[in-house]
Amino acid sequence: QRARALAAVLDAANRARRELESDTLAAAIAQVRDLGLDSQAALVVADPTWHPGVVGLVATRLVSRFHRPAIVIGEGGRGSGRTFEELDLFAAIERTTDHLDRFGGHRAAAGVTLKPGSLAAFRAAFTAEVERRLGRPPFVASLAPDLEIDTAGLSLELLAALEKLEPFGQANPEPLLVARGLAVRAKRVVGDRHLKLRLGDPGLDAIAFGLGELAEALPPRVDVAFNLTRNDWQGRNELQLKIADLRRSS
Hints:
Blueprint: H1 2-35, E1 43-46, H2 55-66, E2 70-73, E3 78-82, H3 89-94, E4 100-105, E5 109-114, H4 119-134, E6 147-148, H5 156-163, E7 177-190, E8 194-199, E9 204-208, E10 221-233, E11 236-248
Parallel strand pairs: 1-2, 6-7, 9-11
Antiparallel strand pairs: 2-3, 3-5, 4-5, 7-8, 7-10, 8-9, 10-11
Helix pairs in contact: 1-2
């Protein structure tokens, strides 16, 4: 009984967080468009009503969508930044400290607190520093797979061997595999924006988080970059491909 009560509270809090994140992301994307930031080397968006608990999540979504370093600033001038591998975010922010009360973080993520009235100056300084380091956009996203594999070689035994490499993280990334020419047997959108697929023969379960918008235009055969995971559901223990990216098969 106690566990059910606690689970209900957690579930309600998580639903509220997802709704808050979704609303903030929509407003941030609109601001990017309205200010023409999608043509700039970096994205700095701000709104004093944005909750500091979701700005980091929204920054991650912006980086994924626009492939630009992104800093999202909310209540009290507090913000959070995310980037992709090519940019050392901490080093770039370090060159803009004239406009900050404080900052901290590391290569991939950082937090900032703006000095009052310094948003425009900080945006200009940070964008100029990113452009100095990376050049002008667009920046082309890239993946560095560890192994190309025939799907006939995928098995729970292989997954168990890969799991011995855990824990995965910043200094020990999860192995990224590639398989080519997989037939798309089934496709559907689940949740808000996730793409659920059945790929290859006889059919591998696959999930592509955040790529639901690709469902309608998906070609009949695809190349996929993925992490090998397991899907434990209703007593079944099956392989699942967690797709990092996919493209039309060449």
